[in-house]
Inverse folding.
């Protein structure tokens, strides 16, 4: 479905829309800027990557997930069903480092949507930094407890 | 038109198994999305479930109140007749009065229902069905469909024979629809307002809509106790269920026979509907709505002239070149060099004069030298004054110590 048409339907009201203090914001997981605009609203586009922080399992080093608009396993297996749309949330856990995740982002957006790519990367970096702080604190706390 | 999208029918027992591969999508799903039609039809159709109510026609009027007229230093509103009670002499009848009747009291014969043209209703229903097949719209409506294998979700007819609610629940879990049900459960709220005393205690969200075909289907009973889930027959698709609140994109689970029936129900672009007599699906104004793709296509780009460079005649706001160096440079390109030259000249001038660093010792020495000189000068002046005195005494017979006049 064309992104333009979908935008006309969705811009006035959607489940992710948050209007606060005169700002029009979005909780869309595919939106890496947080502000609802045509280009940043990822859930209406065909190709989007969302950088999402999750309260993940204890083993997960980074509580970051990448949410991609990928075809589900079923659709990938079924070649002819390419015409049907992908349901969202193929989530990739960003386990070890940010580099593979950033590669995924760069591949997704390529050279065409540089602004979106940068927004995604920016968010990834910020989340990673925040996680590093959290992890450091956790380790310190664990050490203190051991003592 | 490009190839028709294909849809797979899933096995009821196993969400990874497919019982029928590559069924073409019914034409309804290709209908243009018309939120304006849906919104209009929904607001009117939503009024049709209303029950008449009215205010008691005698309310506030059961008095023999009369206006006292003028000249009694009171407002001219009708006042309750009689005496012996507080109520007597109080204002009555008016909408502004306490215990008075309301203005324009509601009558039972208010026009509660709206009729909408059949064609509009059908177009709205078709659009709503189309919207259920578009993932972003279903997401935008707020359904949790991240684990659903395919949208539109078509399942084999086996679910129509479900009798137990556990079967229904397990089915929903298998197909990732349970997340939506959980959403409904967790967001059940006690309603604000008086309605909670009038039988509408809770506000419950809408979950998945299950659409079946065979009339003897037992799944109604299996699904009806699952919160948020609604069950409906294809032949009785309701806009109020397909687009609740006028918002497109309900999450719908179709049975195979229901899905197959849609072509007969709504017709296709090749033939009009059999059931909705003579109904033809809406045709889109633009067959390819992807503007970006059209603009970037070879056919368009070949014909398109190269982009014009915008010629800026002058800046929007006039900047003072005497204060704004960039504005000055624009007017006089040599100004930059002039400024640089001026700076260089100043630098050249001050090159010879080195700042003397006066340290304390030096200062002390110079001060000592000065004092010495001053002292020596003092001595000299003293000596000179004395000499003058002596001369005056010697040659002009000025007495010693006498005051010097002149």
């Amino acid at each position: 479905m064309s992104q333009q048409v979908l935008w006309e339907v969705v811009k006035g009201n959607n489940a992710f829309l948050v209007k606060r203090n005169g700002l029009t914001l979005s909780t869309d997981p595919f939106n890496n800027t947080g502000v609802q605009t045509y280009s940043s609203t990822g859930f209406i586009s065909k190709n989007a990557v969302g950088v999402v922080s999750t309260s993940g399992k204890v083993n997960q080093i980074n509580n970051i997930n990448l949410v991609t608009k990928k075809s589900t396993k079923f659709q990938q297996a079924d070649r002819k069903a390419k015409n049907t749309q992908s349901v969202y949330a193929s989530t990739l856990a960003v386990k070890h480092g940010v580099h593979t995740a950033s590669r995924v982002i760069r591949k997704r957006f390529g050279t065409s949507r540089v602004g979106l790519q940068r927004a995604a990367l920016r968010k990834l970096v910020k989340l990673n930094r925040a996680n590093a702080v959290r992890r450091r604190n956790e380790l310190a706390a664990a050490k203190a407890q051991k003592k | 038109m490009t190839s028709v999208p294909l849809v797979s029918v899933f096995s009821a027992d196993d969400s990874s198994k497919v019982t029928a591969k590559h069924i073409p999508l019914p034409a309804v799903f290709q209908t243009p999305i018309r939120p304006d039609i849906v919104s209009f039809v929904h607001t009117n159709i939503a009024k049709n479930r209303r029950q008449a109510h009215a205010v008691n026609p005698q309310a506030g009027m059961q008095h023999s109140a009369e206006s006292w007229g003028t000249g009694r230093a009171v407002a001219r509103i009708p006042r309750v007749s009689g005496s012996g009670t507080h109520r007597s002499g109080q204002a009555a009848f008016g909408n502004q009065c306490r215990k008075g009747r309301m203005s324009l009291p509601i009558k039972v014969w208010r026009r509660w229902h709206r009729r909408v043209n059949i064609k509009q209703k059908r177009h709205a229903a078709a659009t709503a069905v189309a919207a259920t097949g578009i993932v972003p719209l279903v997401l935008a409506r707020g359904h949790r469909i991240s684990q659903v294998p395919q949208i539109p979700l078509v399942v084999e007819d086996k679910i129509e024979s479900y009798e137990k609610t556990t079967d229904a629940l397990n089915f929903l879990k298998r197909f990732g629809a349970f997340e939506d049900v959980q959403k409904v459960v967790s967001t059940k709220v006690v309603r604000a307002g008086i309605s909670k005393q009038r039988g509408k205690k809770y506000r419950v969200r809408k979950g998945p809509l299950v659409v079946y075909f065979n009339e003897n289907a037992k799944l109604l009973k299996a699904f009806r106790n699952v919160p948020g889930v609604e069950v409906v027959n294809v032949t009785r698709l309701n806009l109020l269920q397909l687009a609740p609140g006028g918002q497109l994109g309900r999450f719908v689970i179709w049975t195979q026979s229901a899905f197959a029936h849609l072509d007969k129900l709504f017709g296709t672009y090749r033939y009009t509907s059999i059931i909705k007599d003579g109904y033809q699906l809406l045709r889109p104004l633009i067959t390819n709505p992807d503007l970006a793709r059209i603009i970037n296509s070879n056919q368009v780009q070949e014909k398109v002239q190269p982009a014009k460079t915008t010629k800026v005649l002058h800046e929007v706001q006039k900047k003072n070149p005497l204060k704004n160096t960039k504005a000055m440079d624009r007017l006089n390109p040599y100004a930059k060099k002039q400024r640089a030259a001026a700076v260089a000249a100043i630098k050249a001038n001050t090159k010879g004069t080195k700042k003397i660093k006066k340290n304390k010792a030096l200062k002390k020495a110079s001060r000592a030298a000065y004092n010495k000189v001053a002292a020596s000068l003092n001595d000299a002046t003293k000596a000179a004054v004395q000499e003058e005195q002596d001369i005056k005494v010697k040659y002009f017979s000025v007495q010693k110590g006498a005051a010097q006049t002149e």
